[in-house]
Specification:
Strand content: 5-15%
Bound molecules: 5-S-methyl-1-O-phosphono-5-thio-D-ribulose
Structural class: alpha/beta
Number of helices: 11
Shape: globular
CATH architecture of the largest domain: 3-Layer(aba) Sandwich
Number of domains: 2
Length: 363
């Protein structure tokens, strides 16, 4: 089985811990960590051992189930109150990817729909597995829709990492490339290294190259040149939160790629599951942007500091790409086009209809 079809976040065999592939050690070391405490879980997300919006959501759902088993409660209400406290703490680990709060809210609603603690625990168990299973299916569907946008031999530019490590199985932005590769197609992928945390270098080029897909690593400031050379036929990126009007938060630098793509008339696509669309944010201005430690710019990955200690740093982890620069948003229900306010709403209607059909089927 190729690497990208295995799970990098899952429950331990006995269900009392969460096992993750530590992404901070890649590409040089493959280290799995077992998370049992709330602190280990918070740190795993905050330090990017687990990262990528969907993977964060899946991990948080498993985390909450594991923590739920550790609660000693006097009553069902007391259990729910303590569980909410754990969910709130986990939710504070990273603010931008909406999948985190989405998965935790879904787990809390599941627990609240039951009367006794044993019932809540088994419902939580089923729900975290369902969140993971659904993400696998969403990524597969996104891969299929995304593949319809490109042709054999195309050059694709991607930013950050929206592959299997960031999701489950196929990934989002990289999904069409893995799927096309399985079908014998060839792509030339240009991966932005993605300063300052180098997800493109450490993770995207690793995943693609291990799977035999042609990948060329470039520094972020080379994207303009490869576009000008005519080597890029489409840009595929992931997303951390999509607002109702299509404005999209993704890894810092994404909006610059979109501006360059518009200049060179290259289509720029955002690929992501509906769990990353947040209709409660009307525009990108409502999306909270995570600010991270200056040491990530000045020191991390260097043998000695690259700036004086007193030099100020601004280190936003994400930026928002204006919807006017986006050629399409690829979801598991199909490709949304402008005006996004309408097409994104329509996607949620499709989703509701599909869910009520499957609820009917289960009755
Ligand atoms: O800070 P990170 O590495 O979690 O940022 C990840 C991204 O920006 C991804 O593009 C996004 O989460 C989509 S993952 C399918």
């Amino acid at each position: 089985m190729p690497d990208y079809l295995s799970d990098h976040v899952h429950l331990s065999d006995d269900g009392t811990a969460v096992v993750i592939l530590d992404q901070t050690c890649l590409p040089n070391r493959t280290i799995y960590r077992t998370l049992r405490t709330a602190k280990e879980m918070f740190d795993a997300i905050h330090t990017l051992q687990v990262r990528g919006a969907p993977a964060i959501g899946i991990c948080a759902a498993y985390d909450l189930y594991v923590l739920a088993q550790q609660i000693s409660a006097r009553s069902a209400e007391d259990f729910l109150r303590q569980l909410q406290g754990q969910a709130d703490d986990l939710c504070a680990s990273r603010p931008t990817a909406v999948n985190l709060s989405w998965a935790l809210a879904r787990m809390m609603q599941t627990a609240a729909a039951h009367d006794t603690v044993p019932e809540m625990l088994s419902a939580l168990h089923r729900e975290c597995l369902a969140i993971h299973r659904e993400d696998i299916a969403m990524c597969r569907a996104i891969a299929e829709h995304g593949l319809s946008l490109i042709r054999d031999g195309d050059g694709i530019l991607t930013h950050c990492n929206a592959g299997p490590l960031a999701t489950s199985r196929y990934g989002t932005a990289l999904g069409p490339l893995f799927l096309g590769h399985e079908r014998g197609m060839h792509f030339h992928v240009y991966a932005d290294e993605t300063r300052p945390l180098l997800q493109g270098a450490r993770l995207t080029s690793y995943e693609l190259s291990r799977s035999g897909i042609d990948v060329t690593l470039i520094c972020d400031n080379m994207a303009s040149l490869v576009m000008k050379n005519g080597w890029i036929q489409a840009c595929f990126v992931g997303c951390d939160r999509v607002a109702a009007n299509g404005d999209t938060a993704n890894k810092i630098g994404t909006s610059g790629v979109a501006i360059l793509a518009a200049h060179y008339r290259i289509p720029f696509y955002v690929l992501g599951p509906t769990s990353t669309i947040d209709l409660s944010c009307s525009t990108g201005a409502d999306i909270p942007i995570e600010l991270r430690d200056p040491s990530e710019i000045k020191e991390k990955f260097y043998t000695e500091p690259m700036a004086l200690p007193e030099v100020k740093c601004y280190n936003p982890a994400f930026d928002v790409t204006d919807h006017s620069l986006i050629s399409g948003i690829v979801t598991e229900y199909g490709i949304c086009r402008a005006p996004y306010t309408e097409s994104l709403r329509a996607v949620f209607e499709k989703k509701r209809a599909a869910q009520s059909l499957s609820d009917e089927g289960r009755k």
